[in-house]
């Protein structure tokens, strides 16, 4: 299906092009109404997205003109105006629907699908031809209950045939419907795609002639219940399809299992477009800044005012789409303020200035930070690769993606500093040879360490002298690697460093009646990612403690009504809170007071006046010890993956998230076959080696946000958010293949191998809670064990 987008805001136009192309539409762009009219007169379009405010010919006038000339394609208007009168005007002009900027892209795509269904006189969203079904809402193609793996162009071909099931399409007509005029290939591309699609239909049991050739004309769907005698040309074509010269639109290593999987995350798409157009947006805000400054000195001329109003209108329509809703609101306020013909008063000019300052601050925030609450994808740590060796940097970036990191490459010192100040990476790989002056490289290392909190840096160099290692340590480097090295070595080091330097993300409760201390502590601790709850009235201590559930408690010794020593005793006497770390703050330095503080159970003691770095260091050290103890308590000591108690909590949280966002979740049970025989025949030491290897392979095969755990004995579980059971199978197959080919040896050097079975269940189809998902996955596991070795992989999905 081909869509024409007529939009003068390039930022919105490019966003729509990528999002709609991702939904398998062919998209063409026009930047003004006159260009849109000319394209409609030259080419056929299935739908038009039309902005109302356009140069040369506005959207309403263009809509009227198209309808008066007899064009019937659905028209969806886009506008920043939300009044009933504007909507009525657009609909009276012949538009079929109306969307107000900023719009939700998911809603927009749904409206487009609805208009296309209506235009094709189909009340059913599911397109069918015999046993062939195509669902436009999920982009799935099914033949006799078998999911067909197709590329976007193959999908578009089928949709074209199914929506026009009695029409014969020539190669030229197919090219015009499915490709844009600026990237249209030759007719051979159509024949190649037809050939590949026929071959895939054959693999699921459909006749290759389901798409039949009409000699001398083109292609169509074979009429239902019609007997078809192939021509010699078709017989030749069919025989040649045994090894089709098919070129997929995605590299083979990225080939999707089915179309829905390959659609990229919308936030990732939007972020990429935002970074392309950020300079243009900044220039538009600069115009607003000039207008605001001029208004303050009463020198705002009409030309600058009109330009500022237009730029504010553009920003109001686009910023919210990119995760800047506050900026969009500010731009809309500015547009309304400048819309009045009256000169701005001094108060209005001051308000204008404040809005523009807020807008500038908003757009300079990283888009990843703006959208951090919207998607799990953005929880991936950001890795900065500061290295002038581009092939090495590209290889590390590729491996980073596989390891679950976002990555950015800085080929020089200036770029690395810019990334530091704009994006605040979570960890840095720094090649000391990024600059010919080693002192400049070390200065950059020191700059990363001056951040609050410091950014961990792994340094690598072709030199590895003791003097160089000492310099790196002095400047704060956390790890040193000598070239050459493998990417596996690099990311083992990265993961180790991240585990040591994870943000505290801890909750601290401070009880102190001095408001100045309260302010100082919040200022000191919050930049380190610590959530601070302050309490000045000790009589409300217990209620606040229960509500806050802190990881560490800070108490003042002397307070009205109840002192810190009494509160410490109360905490230590409670079964639930007895192990809570407690740090005392006090102006008393007498030995008797210090002894009393530690006698009642304090963990540490800091004297007033507070020395900021000392207090932060003591708190961070205490929290790291606490984190280490918790990690030990939550980790299976043999395999290094989570234990049953910890993973159960994580899986319950993941299920809540899946329920809230209506996402699938796959739950897998993995079990080593005949493991008791392994222990009996080769010894428990050999069995432990197998379990450790399975734990290692699981951690290497899955991402950091997946739940990986050992639930006892030889049983492991894996939970994957946003994954269907079919997708989970694709993730498991390489793991099982590696394990089955992995040789193991006992103490006497005797070789043996192990087999692994898996059972998979999916939320919510196979269960709404962890217990029911476990039962379903276990039933699938038993089914898999029965067919072990009868198929390539012993995996079963609960049905």
Polypeptide structure, described:
With 799 residues, the chain is of the alpha/beta class. Helices cover 49% and strands 16% of the residues. The protein has 30 helices and 28 strands. The strands form 7 sheets. The protein has a 5-stranded parallel sheet with strand order 2-1-3-4-5, sandwiched between helices. Helix 12 runs antiparallel to helix 13 (325-339) and helix 17 runs parallel beside helix 18. The radius of gyration is 32 Å and the shape is globular. The protein starts with a strand and ends with a strand. 36% of the residues are buried.
Which keywords apply here?
single chain; 799 residues; alpha/beta; five-stranded parallel beta sheet; 28 strands; 49% helix
Biggest pleated sheet: 5 strands, parallel
Q: In total, how many beta strands?
A: 28
Beta-strand content bin: 15-25%
How many H/I helical runs? 30
What is the oligomeric state here?
A: single chain
Briefly characterize the structure.
The protein is an alpha/beta fold and 799 residues long. 49% of the residues lie in helices and 16% in strands.
